[in-house]
Amino acid sequence: MSSSKQEQPLVPTGQQTPWLTRAWIGVALVPVFFFVAFAVGEGLYSMLGYEAGTAEAPGWTIAVVSAVTLAVVVVPCFFAIHYGRRAMKAGDLRGRVPLIIGWVVAAGWFVLTVVSEVGDFVRR
């Protein structure tokens, strides 16, 4: 049986939910927070009395600085993921794109941080 009614899109064409806009703002802020994380990491190293990139810093210092820089970079990723999900729950399936971008950037940053620090530890 065919119905004469056409299915209505969940969100009418041309309209965005506020959640989708906020998700894309989160994605747009990722490069900004990258530079903020870089500055925070360099600042923490110098506050603790070490030079960034040298092998003389103890393990706890490296772990703390890496965790803080990871947390700074993940903030806009979290917003992209959170608001992307909200947009999808509101019926706007376009929220999937910033959600995926947020997950990929956060996971990539985490993997790169772990691989870099483990590589530096092994090299010592």
Tell me what you see in this structure.
The chain has one domain (18-123). The longest helix has 31 residues, at 59-89. It is mainly α and 124 residues long. Helix 1 (18-28) runs antiparallel to helix 3, helix 1 packs parallel to helix 4 (96-123) and helix 2 runs antiparallel to helix 3. The chain has helices spanning 18-28, 30-47, 59-89, 96-123. It is elongated and about 70 Å long. The chain crosses the membrane at residues 21-40, 60-83, 95-115. Keywords: Membrane, Transmembrane, Transmembrane helix.
What's a concise summary of this model?
Keywords: Membrane, Transmembrane, Transmembrane helix. The protein is 71% helix and 0% strand.
Structural class: mainly alpha
Number of helices: 4
**How many discrete domains?**
1
Instruction: Give the strand tally.
Output: 0
Keywords: Membrane, Transmembrane, Transmembrane helix
Keywords:
124 residues; mainly alpha; elongated
List the helices and strands and how they pair.
Layout: H1 18-28, H2 30-47, H3 59-89, H4 96-123
